[in-house]
Design a protein that fits this description.
By secondary structure, this protein is an alpha+beta fold. It has a domain at 34-128: Ribosomal Protein S5, domain 2, CATH 3.30.230. It has helices spanning 63-66, 70-76, 78-83, 100-118, 123-128, and strands at 5-8, 14-20, 28-40, 43-51, 56-58, 61-62, 89-96. Mean pLDDT is 84; it is low at 15-30.
């Protein structure tokens, strides 16, 4: 069985995918997807946004099943509320790295970027809401000759 035929336009990052519904009959459907990447700490979210009914699927599971905290689920849906597109798009996302909180931040960032790819007029509203800003805070590395990033061994005068 062959995989899907994928053609990508680099300029606006819209991907057209032809799906084969039946083996015997070649029925072709065109789905416009908007692909974006979001990051937070060490977490990376690869987001595919397509017109739909508002489903959020994260790593093959529903968003409320993956993020069991209601606060994180509402944090993820914030870009849709800012853009007034709550039930307009379906999201399929793959998350890697980090913890649940940083994965939620990466997913929010990726959804925001994908919404801007879909409709560039949303950029100012999403930027004002802080959804397009990549949080630069990372874990500081451990230094040599010290037990941690900032911690020092106890000073001995003599």
């Amino acid at each position: 069985m062959r995989g899907p035929n994928i053609r990508t336009k680099r300029k606006n990052r819209i991907q057209y995918r032809s799906d084969r519904n039946y083996k015997d009959m070649a029925i072709q459907t065109r789905i416009a997807e908007h692909i974006a990447t979001g990051r937070r700490k060490t977490a990376v979210a690869r987001v595919r946004l397509a017109l739909g009914v508002g489903k959020l699927i994260v790593n093959g599971r529903e968003v409320n099943e993956y993020f069991q905290s209601e606060a994180l689920a509402s944090y993820i849906k914030q870009p849709f509320q800012i853009a007034d597109a709550v039930k307009r798009y379906d999201v399929i996302a793959n998350l890697q790295g980090g913890g649940k909180s940083s994965q939620a931040g990466a997913l929010r960032h990726g959804i925001s970027r994908a919404l801007v790819n879909a409709d560039p007029s949303l950029k100012s509203a999403l930027k004002e809401g802080g959804c397009l800003t990549r949080d630069p805070r990372m874990k500081e590395r451990k230094k040599t000759g010290q037990p941690g990033a900032r911690k020092r061994f106890q000073f001995s005068k003599r």
